[in-house]
Amino acid sequence: MLFGHNKQEDAIGMIDKYPLMNDYWADKRVDMSKITIPAYVLASYSTALHTVGSFRGFEELPSKEKWLRVHPTQEWHDLYSEACTEDLQRYFDCYLKGEQNDWKQTPQIRASLLRFNQDPIVNYVFSDWPIPDTDYRKLYLSGDAQLVHDLPRSSQTFSYQSDTPSLQIDADSEELHFSHKFTARSYLVGYSRAVLYVSCPNSDDLDVFIQLRKADASGKLLQNINIPLEHLELKAEEVATVNTNKYLGPTGILRASHRKIDYEQSKPHWPLHSHFEEEKVPRGQVVELTIGLWPTGMAFEAGEQLVLKIAGHHMTLAEFEPLRGGFQTSNKGTHVVHVGPEHPSHVVVPFVSV
Q1: Which Gene3D superfamilies does this chain map to (predicted)?
Q2: Does 185 share its domain with 328?
Q3: Predicted TM-score (pTM) above 0.85
């Protein structure tokens, strides 16, 4: 920790003092409605800190003069790139110097789509964010570990050991996989969410982690390198497996006792939980969890696969190597995921036309 001459808030101490949402924590949420000036918003899918805030901030800004650019690289790489500098210069020249340049003709939504095993699609123009006419498709978890369009007719359970140590290196054990193979080129852009029916015979609470991944036609899970190899001056196999360098896919996390949804704050594409109270789960009782995933932009060719992973540990890569193994949960024992007609566990994914 860096120490200055003045006082600062002890965030960890305040979490211990106020473990639930209250006025103290509510005051930390920026009231975006008060920002009425023009805005240039940068966003990336890969940052472990800023992704959701960038997108939600853009959505909540009331100004009509706002631009969103979603870049395909690690945020520092983009921010200091020549292309970004030139783009920002045009924006600042327009609004700070009053220059009559062509900035206001710039498309207000430019999003990049990651292909993982190919170069990304950069600055694809959409009309708004979230993308209008998004086709939110429901894929059910089936008894043969697939993601299918139709509700399975038979019930099944899957389990994993929730308290197995993990290192966040994309090689941890005790993770469930459910896959969907695409029959045509497809694009997923925006917010996904999962509805899972889960139980735990060993504890009255569960920390559940989910992740969407891209796999190639053979089923191999892919990693997206966040910085062009020619700039790293490395071969792909030499790039360290940390979150600043590699993006795996969007993630979601929910503690079961915090499953109550705040319907006033939630949006059709983004479930927000209230966190004002705890509702413990009786051991062995099946409960429904709605878990939002961070926004993403992913492109798939025919034959490639979408994979939903479920585990009791965080599956985003550690931000830096010294942080491996440092993410702790309160999990104990076995988590059971229920699928089928009585417990229709599913994931909703955002298909768009490109």
Answers
A1: alpha/beta hydrolase, Galactose-binding domain-like
A2: yes
A3: yes
